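note to self: the first set is below, dont mix up w the second
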Amino acid sequence: MHIDARTLEAGALIEGDLCIIGAGAAGISMAMEWLPTGRRVILLEGGGFNVELRMQALYHGESLDRPYYPLQSATLHYFGGTTGHWAGFCSPFDPIDFEKRDWVPHSGWPFNRAHLDPFYARANRYLELGPYEYDAAYWEQQDAEVRRLPLDAATFYPKMWQFSPPTRMGTVYREPIVQAKNVHLYTYARVVEIVPNEAVSAIDGLRVKTIDGKEHRVRARQYVLACGAIHNARLLLASNRRAQAGIGNDHDLVGRYFMEHFEITAAQVAFEKAPAAKLYLFPALGKTRARAEMAISGNTQRQQKILNGTASFQPGALTGREQSRFASFSADAEANVKEWQAKKWAGNRTPPPEVVFRMFTRQEQSPNPESRIVLGTEKDELGMPRANLRWRFTPLDKRSIRTFYELLGRELGRAGLGRVQLMDWLLDGDDNAWPNILSGGWHHMGTARMHEDPKQGVVDPNGKVHGIANLFVAGGAVYPTGGAVNPTLTVVAMALRLSDHLRQKA
């Protein structure tokens, strides 16, 4: 069922069993899981069914420390959320990503990769992917021409990706949600405050505003915050009438540990002869689009004490004109969405017989409490303080990229395949200096991290906000670490895990 909140009488009371705040990848996949339950589910979306500049303007904020994408473009404020402009890259986190690593401060998840595997398999289906197979050996068996480079598997291995169409969740799942009898989708229902009881031990309700000035109230037994890492933190911090520092922020952790993926051209590889690189370049294999990237093994990460990272091969040499993607995005959020949606994979192209390739890195960011979302003094049209970004790095971040390519150069040389040339920014010796070609992946993680100890995390291992009986957080906000892969597959897997937990409680 769909209701435009602007059509309700001012002061309307909306009630249900479960309230999901945010209709992006996490919120929609959770709502779909509740369709057969008969429970009354409230799904609140602050925007409508299409991107609108006025709604995106509510997400305006400043990057206070370094260049970043315009924040009003980095998160989409309409049904489907940021799946409206994602590129569809999917791969699960590696086992080491869940481990407590003594060289990575604040690392460690409360469960391991094997625990999440069944939820990954289910998430594969929601994102219209192929079989839950992310081992290169499986893909090599499908095509005799698909072979990994002959490198030492103890150091480097081919990490597999599958590519969603990409699934626009606001389009694919709109009809079943709108037609559902027990899921009540409210559009233009922007939550501006989470209201706890006087003891701040449970949530009593929500304050919702529409863009035309009406205000409504929402009550439910359980609440799930699924607005993305930036705006989950923003709403928790701004709900400070009874909890002075914000809800869930007794230990000053909400908004901290913001993480992105470093995405940057770091080197070029010159092969002795054109490599058999179909595994690393092909955009399609039958009906399933898949590709490998060069990845560094968990054991090598332990030995070298570095972060997780991958590198992809891009045909052609460095030009000297490489630039950050930050500069290519304007404040016009609608134009940015159209640009992302226009990008398509090129089908079954045969890769060119190149011998020189640019190496594009995607690396995890070390969790850093000084990298954070903070509230600004300026307020948006509905009276909420804006969210500002302080994106800060550690020396481990840059050293990890340098070590990755030094090891890759040695390994390609040992195998007699070719040579690696590092870009100058990796050779400057200053691990606190970053070049102006640095980009990010639009991958917002952290800000409401998961930990058993309330002094080290905002939510517990089930996603429940510490000290609040009926408030949960979904999405990348709860990640203790960010791995080296795009977060959407894990966002959906974690949402399905949380949904199972809430259904068992119900």
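second set (the one i keep forgetting abt)
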Amino acid sequence: MDTPLRPPLPIASYAAAIRTDAATLASAAATAGPDAPVPTCPEWLVRDLVRHLGGVQRWATSIVATPRTEPWAVDLPEVVGTWPDDDALTAWLQDGADALATTLETADPALQCWTFLKATSPLAMWARRQAHETAIHRVDGESALGASGTPFEPSFGADGVDELLVCFVPRRTTNLTSLAPQVLRVTALDADGDWDVLIGTERVTTLPGGTNPADATVRGEASDLYQALWNRPVSAPLDVTGDPALVALFLDKVHVTWT
């Protein structure tokens, strides 16, 4: 049995996070400049980062607002139409974030639309996913200034870890497998969060922490766990016990990308 779905944060909390993190990213982007490299996403310049997030947010807004009930596999330029000029990038990003947040806030809680992750409802899935999409890319924007990501509130960080471990990692398309079954335990020290990631030869199952003996355990504050498991820099080293190669395997194989 997989881990029971964690109750989501309130939709208003996710919407507020989208607005706040998009504004922080916009400020970092304006300071760094569109041609600055993004160390946490080596293939991107700041321009690419802002375009990506602004495009994804407009894609999500359309799915919720229409609502779209079938998968919408589309390239972001088709969603956006014409990319903004460099001097309009940050305003464009904030406009898109505000439209997305407003769409989520005003949507019918009983909304039925296409989703791609497990969730308590379609609206909860999109609010959660877009809040964490914006949050992680805010960290990327701060990296363009040579700064580590501003810490997240513990409850938000734990929610982001839960989305990654319970919803993303166990999907059929996961690259995280092991020649022999192993268990990675992840424990948040300052929030409600304890997970056992059972890495098998063909699939991953995430269960409540303590379900199985762990081959390796990672402990840390929820914000640091959240950023570290998404392969972003952290403010303090995590406490790793057991086999460090298992942690390295997770970080090497788990990369969520736009496809």
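remember for set 2: Helices lie at 11-32, 46-65, 76-80, 89-106, 122-143, 154-168, 222-229, 244-253.
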